Amino acid sequence: MTPETKAQIDSYGVYRLLHDNRFAPIGDPRFQGEEGEYRMKRLAEVRAQDNDAYVRASKDMGWTR
Questions:
Q1: Fewest C-beta atoms under 10 Å: which of 1, 13, 40, 59?
Q2: What are the Cα distances from residue 52, in Å, to 4, 44, 47, 48, 59?
Q3: pLDDT by residue (tens digit) across 11-28?
Q4: How many domains does the chain have?
Q5: Angle of the 14-23 helix axis to the 51-61 helix axis, nearest 10
Q6: Nearest to 36 by CA among 17, 51, 54, 52
Q7: Which domain does 7 fall in, by range?
Q8: Cβ neighbours of 11 (radius 10 Å)
């Protein structure tokens, strides 16, 4: 993973991180290998920082696009 990719992921808010995770197609390269592990770690971090924002984002986006 490049420093630019890491910085991009770090710039995403809870909604973007959750949305990408929820709606990515199976096998999406963004969720494979080192980048995938980092995205999931980052999502867990933002959720731990503000679980209420995570829940709001989840309810706002639902399960359909």
A1: 59
A2: 29, 13, 8, 9, 11
A3: 999 999 999 999 999 999
A4: 1
A5: 50
A6: 17
A7: 3-61
A8: 8
